[in-house]
Amino acid sequence: MEKKTKRQNNLTYIVLVVVLLILSVLVAVTGIARRHAAETPPSLTDTPDIGKKPVTEQPVLPPETKAPETQPSGGTDEPAEQVSNTLPLFELPVDGAISKDFAVDVPVFSLTMEDYRTHAGIDIAAAVGDPVRAAADGIVGKIYDDPFMGTCLTILHSGGAVSIYKNLAEATAPGIAVGTAVTAGQEIGYIGETALLECAEETHLHYELTVAGKNVDPTDYLPAAAMTGSFED
Question: Predicted confidence band at 225 (pLDDT cuts at 50, 70, 90)?
Answer without folding.
Answer: low
